[in-house]
Amino acid sequence: MKSSQTTNSPAPNKFSPKRLILWAFASLAGLALVGVLLVVFALAMAYPNLPALDTITDYRPKMPLRIFTADNVLIGEFGEERRTLVRFKDIPDVMKKAVLSIEDDRFYQHGGVDYMGVLRAALHNATGSGARQGASTITQQVARNFFLSSEQTLKRKAYEALLAWKIEKNLSKDQILEVYMNQIYLGQRAFGFQSAAQIYFGKDLRDISVAEAAMLAGLPKAPSAYNPVVNPTRARTRQQYILQRMHSLGYITDAQFETAKNEELKIKSDSTAFGVHAEYVAEMARQLVYEQFKEDTYTRGLNVFTTITKADQDAAYLALRRGVMDYERRHPYRGPESYIEIPNDKTEADEAIEAELAEKPDSDDIVAAVVLSASSSSVTAVLASGEEIKITGPGLSFASSWLSAKAAPNRRIRRGALIRVMQDGSSDWKITQMPEVESAFVAASTEDGAIKALVGGFDYNRNKFNHVTQAWRQPGSSFKPFIYSASLERGLSPATLVNDAPISFDAGQTGGQAWEPKNYDAKYEGPMTMRRGLTKSKNMISIRILNRIGARYGQEYATRFGFDAEKNPPYLTLALGAGATTPLQMAGAYAVFANGGYRISPYLISKVTDSAGKVLSEARPERAGMEANRVIDARNAFLMDSMLKDVARYGTAAKAQATLKRPDIAGKTGTTNDSIDAWFAGYQPKVVGIAWMGYDQPKNLGNKETGGGLALPIWIGYMQTALKGVPVEEREVPPGLIMANGEYYYAENPPGTGVQSLDVGTTPAPAEQKQQDAVRNELF
């Protein structure tokens, strides 16, 4: 029997290379799938917990408080974020294209995350060629800016992508781009492109050129690095690259590209400057608005419209600055402000000079300079801009005594001295100095109190104390008209004779010690009419009038005009303005004489609106002409106006009539004891203006300095602009007045009645008085 043999074929190798590769791929695929499932699960779990999009869907960005003139000129901005909300339809196409070209040119194609962009950036970064690229879309940037930090972690990137998808589901592409262009930070505290256009170029976004749009579009990546104010060279380099991108993407034509490439941009070097010097006004408005809106003041985008106008404010600012500098030129030069040692090495010298000038900023046209060399005939100095200037001839006259080698070393103008210079009309430089004296000016409508101009001091950046509202100073002779007005209600008239002769009082009558007052010029002219006493501002006349009507009555009567009784004690010194008032209070008081007897309250804010223009509050001022606001008889106001016009015609303020040549202006000078305060308070029937000058730490202004020489020129300087083209107004004589012998009287107190004289006896009026009465007869 044959046996059979079975032959077995070889078993396959379980670990063949082919199987290993397949197994490895399957394992990786499984792990990848698990990873993807885990990621999807994590994302699915995370998505419902993403923050709500209310801050975007109901976009209400922080917007600053803005202060405007009545004619819509921006004068102040307050808030951490400087932003002006602009709707998508109002953003110029060139600005949108500039942003898209550099930030996200596939914005309208992707769904929030640009996968092609991510792949491109990954390949670029893997090769290590050039700077690292990012792939964040505009939507992702919006997500990061609103909800996330800027940390570079996978978790943050994942949340960013999720939020981007969520945003794309809830907002249209145009809405997302609108939010981005309003929210993004662009340097110089500017948020959004509208604000940036204003800050960097001083213009509205709708008016920018292609070149300017490209410059702004370069800011989001790194506002500090590409800021045209801080880094103009780097900013231009990035601008040129963006222009190339816009051209290559077909956003601009060849002609536009060539024009934009070569356009010379004018960057605002001072990004905080406004078109009007109204810093005191802006701060006043800010304080008033904060009282009403508290912390919302700086985030709601409130727009505050003041009552001032650009033309009036400019006129007031220039007049005050000119008046103060004229005063400075009449007084000695005080020497350089400081000294530095200038190194021999040019680089070190430039750095030392730059550091010193940074500590002494310019004050408008009064410029700081460091002296490089000095002699009795020439001074060479350098400005903060790096410009070297040479001062010779008349430009040295003000400081000539300090150029001598004999001058004290600690006061001499020499190398390293910091001086102040300014240009005269011919553009030549001259040495000047920063004033120590202060000044204030305010003008307001006499009809409703709307403030037309307000300058609270010489330079807000040096002294933020608002002298219009905060400086309680003695008004001096500018207070006399209110004593005269009171006397008209006590039987006196402009024709009442009062003796201009020395007088003395004991301590009980003055509230202090025995008093022997004097006239300013220490001259006495004997009996004169009350009218002439005011015209010549005779102290003895005012004192005798107040003594007759009673200091208590004088004090109480003055409160009708808005003066505080507690700041004006009922003593005879009140006749010389020994109390205290502010320029703003004085403006309201003099307006009563100007408008026929009505009390008005000066006010600054006409209305406040929200960012959409909705009116939130609006002024409802008291007006002249409403009998409820009458505080003195119309006849009293007419007579006081008549006497105050005499002051401006041929009295202590005659310079006003000589310059303005208007018969409808009136006012009163004021110079306090020892020439510590100088005032002029005056008006035309429609506008009242108050000018003041003095030192913050009260001291003598100079033996020959008076209100007529210091404050009046400021008032005239303002009125030359404010009254240009304004017709002359003739005042109607109110009922109840009669005229006799060239003078007006209350009908119930005709000549021969009432108080005919004070301390006169039978002494006749001087011949000069008769001559002036004849002049008055011709005027009437």
Automatic annotation (TrEMBL):
Residues 770-780 have a biased composition (Basic and acidic residues). Pathway: Cell wall biogenesis; peptidoglycan biosynthesis. The keyword Translocase does not apply. Residues 73-247 form the Glycosyl transferase family domain. It is found in: Cell inner membrane. Residues 440-688 form the Penicillin-binding protein transpeptidase domain. Residues 333-437 form the Penicillin-binding protein OB-like domain. Residues 755-780 are annotated as: Disordered. This is Penicillin-binding protein 1A. The lineage of its organism: Bacteria, Pseudomonadati, Pseudomonadota, Betaproteobacteria, Burkholderiales.
